[in-house]
Amino acid sequence: MNDILPGDERNTRQARHPMDVTDGPAATSATSPQLARSLLATENVWHQMEVEFGLLTGREVAELLGVPPATRDWVSSRWQAGKIIAVRRGKSYRYPGFQFDRDLQIVLPICESLLEMARANDWSNESLSLWMLGPSTSFAKEDRPVDNLLDPGAVLAAAKMEMEAEW
């Protein structure tokens, strides 16, 4: 498996989202105190995501969605088709648990639209996932996109505003 997620050309283009700094050369060279704090804050968000929603393996996703063991490749094929969010954590890919309705055993329909928008704006799956856990003034309570997944229109509008912003 290669290091690049489908539709993620960060190896040929500079990432546009500030959270992508953890994947670049800055993460391995001498770091300033500011960059070190930023990297720690980003790692804390990953930890929060894992604790609150889970960063699931493909096998866990298959079980959660009721996919028969004989079709194990189903999860990776959905990811490669841009239907579910996969993020690289260490040497493996994980699937943020916020994208699944555990009661209905489905992938939330908004995920495909978010992935399309992210790709169109050169955002990685990692940046999209981290953005989902950040507070946003786009919502009445100034809470996180992940807290508003039952209002897909609001989340997509917030994503569009954030992803298409000119820096």
State the total count of DSSP E strands: 5
Strands in their spatial order, largest beta sheet: 1-3-2
Rg, Å, rounded: 16 Å
Let me know the average pLDDT: 85
What order do the SSEs take from the amino end to the carboxyl end, as H and E?
A: HEHHEEEEHHH
Helicity level: 25-40%
Span between termini: 33 Å
Q: What is the number of domains?
A: 1
Structural class: mainly alpha
What is the overall silhouette?
Answer: globular
Low-confidence blocks of residues: 1-16
Largest sheet: 3 strands, antiparallel
Structure report:
The protein is mainly alpha-helical and 167 residues long. α4 runs parallel beside α6 (152-163). 40% of the residues lie in helices and 8% in strands. The protein is globular. The chain has one domain. The strands form 2 sheets. It has a 3-stranded antiparallel sheet with strand order 1-3-2. The chain has a two-stranded antiparallel sheet with strand order 4-5.
